[in-house]
Amino acid sequence: MTFGIYIGSVAGTDSELATGEPDNPSKIKSALSEIQQNDSFIVIRGYIQYLGDSKLAFEAPENILQYSNETRKIDLVLCYRSISYQRDDWENTIKTVIQRFGSKLYSLQITEEPNLRVSFAGDGGFENIDKALKDGVLTAKKEINRLKYQTKVGFNVVPSFNPADNFWQVIGSDEYLELRDAIDYIGLDFYPDVFRPVAEDGEPNDLIESVKNVLRYVRNVNFQEGKIPQSIPIHITENGWPTGEQRSYERQAVVIEKVVRTIHSLKSELNINHYELFSLRDTNSSVEDKFYQFGLLRDDYSPKPAFSIFCKLIDELTQRVTATNKS
Questions:
Q1: If we measure between CA atoms, which residue out of 70, 71, 66, 73 comes closest to residue 44?
Q2: Cβ atoms of 144 and 108 closer than 8 Å
Q3: What pTM, to 2 d.p., does this model score?
């Protein structure tokens, strides 16, 4: 599997962006060097918001290109946050972003959680998000092919258990056949035992069983409704477990190891080839709210126990550097 991590200080909540101390590039690079043991290859996740009228804002982390090198490429999320759909402007902005990041882009995710319709965190509540997703993916794929980059193009979702949600029906319609043919992956953001608690270890529907059930449901129910073939891999684009609010550092380390190993055990069955952790550091370690403490490191970049666990998992399970990775 390919592994990755979000390295910025900014995090999303249900209603706003959570901010803390600014990014410290030297400490981020030091932490990434510890994570990348024995020639491991990783991707670093970043976000930019498109606001319409050619405006881009809220880049997190700032200047993400400074962290890229031969063994470290970028998974960029281009969020869609425009109050009105301007197709030409959206497509031209996508081309500009691709040209800016160039061959350092490992993957480009068009929109953020477009099936999350009623939350600040997702793009699904914005006008014509389905059209923006389709047009954006097709534009990105065409531009990447023109420039002869190897960048993967896709979009991400959250698990959907609501029968009234028509997102996957739209994706599975004839109108979206071009989109289905163009994507290289579909990302999945999911946070077991964070927003909805699971049973104690060893009981029915415990952490491991819950992870398996969600991933199988996404592949075998959501993707089936969207006519997504088994050949399209799943990227776990966001997963993590925060400390604070009676959530111990020790439990965070246990949860992360169990979740990563469970995902890895399903990689062949469900065609999962990619995992990214949210996130490297806390937004603000003094704020007990869970949205502020997702980090493997505190906000001063000192490690929690989960940091060494994640380093160990990458060393054991990751894809190694190859000529293809370096290209």
A1: 73
A2: yes
A3: 0.96
Residue 8: which of 16, 17, 79 has the closest Cα?
17
Residue with tokens 């111990």: 248
111: which 2 tokens? Answer: 């929109």
Beta strands in 239-301 (DSSP E): 272-277
Structure tokens at 22: 């600014």
Query: Up-side HSE of residue 88: CA atoms within 13 Å toward CB?
Result: 0
* Range 144-154 average pLDDT: 98
User: What is the domain partition of the chain in residue ranges?
Assistant: 2-326
Surface-to-core class of residue 22, CB atoms within 10 Å of its CB (0-12 exposed, 13-18 middle, 19+ buried): exposed
Give the domain 2-326 fold.
TIM Barrel (3.20.20)
**Quick one: average pLDDT of 169-189?**
98
Does the pLDDT of residue 325 top 60, yes or no? no
- Cα gap 181→170, rounded to integer Å: 15
Q: What is the pLDDT of residues 63-79, one digit of tens each?
A: 999 999 999 999 999 99
Give the list of residues 6+ apart from residue 228 with CB closer than 8 angstroms, or none.
171, 172, 180, 186
Task: Write out the two tokens for 12.
Answer: 């999303």
Asked if pLDDT for residue 326 goes beyond 60, the answer is: no
- Mean pLDDT score, 103-121: 91
- Integer Cα distance of 18 and 290 in angstroms: 11
Q: Does residue 184 carry a pLDDT above 80?
A: yes
